[in-house]
Design a protein that fits this description.
It is a single chain. With about 300 residues, the chain is of the alpha/beta class. The protein contains ten helices and eight strands. It has two domains: about 5-230, Spore Coat Polysaccharide Biosynthesis Protein SpsA, Chain A; about 230-295. Helix 2 (about 45-55) links the parallel strand 2 and strand 3 (about 60-65). It is elongated, with a radius of gyration of 25 Å. The mean pLDDT is about 85.
């Protein structure tokens, strides 16, 4: 199969027929074999009924319906699991992403050899204060920490090689940083393409102000997990060693001073600080051991209650 389209959605019943027809037109014009995987993230409108009706007309349309709302990352993760195409393309269901970008996004993966191509909505129709400015801050921070030279990490329109989506795990709200997850998984050829951003035609945005705070917290998590996720003892153990050895060294010094020079310990703040450092060092070691146990035995982090499936 040439292409799998993974499209998470929440309450997009109005846009789905138009989006599906547009995608089908692009696919037929380019003679692609394809599947469209709609992931209904607990919609409260008739989105799932629309998906089932669309599937009756086009068997390439498939669907996954969550029992409740889990978030965009969960939708992408389940869609990635189900995807069978050689190239996987993600987009939003609100018609702000153009399916006409699909052929070039696929070509960059197949012919240019990119592992991942991220869209860049250079000209946006969002509110400049509530979306554009925070987005620029997020992207600047993500570029600085990840060293990936992308302008728009959060763009929903991306293309991936099949190997990438089967290697990364998207959870929490990590959908913003899939390029970073891909890089930490060893995929280095990450490209960017300027894509069209269209004004919203139906409904309203599903993202509130909390996404800004969560975005920075998730960036910190990705940075830590990328470097130390498989070896937490390297982080906690290193700092534990610094605290323990420095505290132990000063403690020995103060004890020898007491023995040789009869320097009092009970009223010596330096001695108490040294003992505190020893205790902190031991606690960091214990945190490292616990982290190792958790990382080796964690299960169910990406378990979601799927109410219905169609063709998947």
């Amino acid at each position: 199969m040439d292409i799998s389209l993974v499209i998470p959605l929440l309450n997009e019943e109005e846009s789905l027929p138009e989006l599906s027809a547009w995608i089908e037109k692009v696919m037929d014009e380019n003679n692609y074999s394809y599947e469209i995987i709609y992931v209904d993230d607990g919609s409260t409108d008739n989105s799932w009924c629309v998906i089932e009706q669309l599937r009756l007309k086009n068997p390439n349309i498939k669907g996954i319906k969550f029992q409740r709302n889990y978030g965009k990352s969960a939708g992408l993760n389940e869609g990635f699991r189900a995807a069978q195409g050689d190239v996987i393309i993600t987009m939003d269901a609100d018609l702000q992403d153009s399916p006409d970008e699909i052929p070039e996004l696929r070509r960059m993966i197949v012919e240019d050899g990119y592992d991942l191509v991220s869209g860049w909505k250079k000209k946006r129709y969002d509110n400049k204060l509530t979306k554009n400015l925070p987005s620029k801050l997020f992207n600047a921070a993500a570029r600085q920490m990840s060293k990936i030279k992308l302008h728009d990490f959060n763009c929903g329109l991306k293309s991936y090689s099949k190997k990438v989506v089967k290697s990364v795990e998207v959870y929490g709200e990590m959908h913003r940083y899939v390029p970073v997850l891909a890089k930490w998984s060893g995929f280095r050829k990450i490209g960017e393409k300027v894509v069209e951003h269209r004004a919203r035609k139906y409904g309203v945005s599903k993202f509130g102000w909390t996404r800004f705070i969560n975005g920075f917290l998730d960036l910190m998590t990705i940075f830590f997990m990328g470097k130390f996720g498989k070896r937490p003892m390297h982080f906690f153990g290193s700092w534990g060693s610094v605290f323990f050895l420095s505290g132990f060294g000063f403690s020995v010094y103060f004890i020898l001073s007491k023995i040789i020079l009869n320097t009092p310990l009970t009223n010596n703040p330096g001695f108490y600080m040294a003992m505190t450092a020893v205790i902190i060092g031991i606690q960091l070691f214990l945190a490292g051991f616990i982290g190792e146990l958790v990382s080796r035995n964690a299960t169910g982090r990406n378990f979601y209650l799927v109410e219905k499936k169609a063709g998947v």
